[in-house]
Design goal:
CATH class: Alpha Beta
CATH architecture: Alpha-Beta Barrel
CATH topology: TIM Barrel
Largest sheet: 6 strands, parallel
Number of domains: 1
Structural class: alpha/beta
Helix content: 40-55%
Bound molecules: S-adenosyl-L-homocysteine
Radius of gyration: 19 Å
Number of helices: 14
Length: about 350
Amino acid sequence: MAYKGVVSVTTENLIEKLSDTHTLTLDEYAYLIENRDENAARMLAERAVKIRKEIYGTDVFVRGLIEISNICKNDCLYCGIRKSNSSCERYRLSADEILDCADEGYKLGFRTFVLQGGEDGYYTDDLLEGIIKEIKQKYPDCAVTLSLGERSRESYKRLFDAGADRYLLRHETADKEHYEKLHPSEMSFENRMRCLKNLREIGYQVGCGFMVGSPYQTARTIAEDLKFIEEFKPDMCGIGPFVPHGATPFANEKGGTVELTCYLLSIIRLIYPPVLLPATTALGTIHPLGREMGIQSGANVVMPNLSPTAVRKKYELYDNKICTGEESAQCVACLKQRMKSIGYEIVTDRGDIRK
Ligand code: SAH
């Protein structure tokens, strides 16, 4: 097939090239996405699983996700907890409630706690510093990960100095125009990227990521995401399908697929072999075996919910989110069984990147 001066490019030889060199051009990434088929998916997954096994064996890392607040000053068009959603019942957890979740999580074998939430001004640097210090003092063998959106460089620095180890901030899309179609005008692509750069410079292990199948996404914008990941080399990369939420402007948009999400998980593993790659709850939401399929495509992290059962349903980023009724212990037992059923094992470990 004629392709930019090369006589015959096939997905097969692009996959070979990617496995060998961990880099493709933007056009090549776009080609790999546009021309994907079952054969290419199988080839990518085989290689991704092989290279991941060389680094992580059959270990799957767990992160205890504590959803600390669904109050948010932002109005991201895709998100169920956006500020304009008046049907969302709002809550926030107190410092004590967050610590209780960590206590329970520790007993269940978690060695990483992820504090995630909307951009809620209640959580000042002072308050968060206290929470982080308390968790780290009580559980020095644990990592604290924050996922609290965009904050100032000074704030990120204070929280890092208080002991936070990692920060998850999905870039959402590496294409500025696409970013602007997903976010209100008060938010900016430049600031998102600046935050990621600041986090990296301060010394955090940093996670970026994007939704698969978000409105206006194209093979070209995904290629840009992949190029960004190739260059930024995030320690973590969260990708999951976009799932429409009925009370957002994107209620009637199509959601992302398991197939493309898994395909991209394999590609990302090959781009940056040590990356910590979760099989997300969103993937488990759109298919009963979504998380297993994610692991079998190259993911190596799962993030069960540790939030108090009373608030779980309220942290509804998208419709039909799974695991909102279970106790934390049930979620862990269920995931352990699921991983075991495909030949993997959940480990009690901080789960740092093995670079
Ligand atoms: N406020 C924090 C945490 C956001 S929630 C922040 O800005 O980083 C974590 C992620 O959930 C988001 O980054 C987004 O990519 C994802 N998300 C939000 N709405 C979603 C939806 N409808 N479908 C799938 N994923 C969604």
